[in-house]
Amino acid sequence: MKETDQHGVNKLLDYALTKQMVHDLDMMSSGEAKALINKFFNLFGAANKRLFTNAKYDNGLSWSSIMKETPGVIYFDTGVVVVTRNLIGILWIADKG
Questions:
Q1: Residue 93 and residue 77 in contact, taking contact as beta carbons nearer than 8 Å
Q2: What is the rounded radius of gyration, in angstroms, for the C-alpha atoms of the chain?
Q3: 6-18 vs 30-42: helix axis angle to the nearest 10?
Q4: CA gap 77, 93 in Å, rounded
Q5: How far apart are CA 60 and CA 41, in angstroms?
Q6: What is the largest CA-CA distance in the chain?
Q7: 7, 24, 61, 71: which has the fewest C-beta neighbours closer than 10 Å?
Q8: Quick one: which of 36, 38, 16, 35 has its CA closest to 27?
Q9: Which domain range does residue 35 map to?
Q10: pLDDT tens-place values along the chain, 97 residues long
Q11: What pTM was computed for the model?
C-alpha cells in the first residue's frame, strides 16, 4: 500500500466502480460512482486524512492485487484505505477473473 492524494484516488475509484476490471465492461454510470465516492469521503469530514491504495492512476490505471489467488482464479482488486485521527475506512472493489 502506498500513500496517495485525493485526486488520484477519485480517478481510481471512479474507474473501479464504473468498469468491470477484468474485461473493462461498463458496470455503473460515472455519476453513480461519483455519488458513492462522495458519500464515502463525507464520512470523514474535511479533517486531515491520509489515503492509501494498492494502485496508481497516471495516464492509466495500474495496481497490485492484495487478494490471495486460488487455483484457477485470479482476482483484480483495488480501493482506498482512509485514516484520520479518529476513523479508519476502507472502500475496496474486487473482480474475479
A1: yes
A2: 14
A3: 130
A4: 6
A5: 23
A6: 43
A7: 71
A8: 16
A9: 2-96
A10: 899 889 888 988 998 899 876 677 778 999 999 999 999 999 998 778 999 998 876 665 666 676 677 787 777 888 999 999 999 999 998 887 7
A11: 0.82
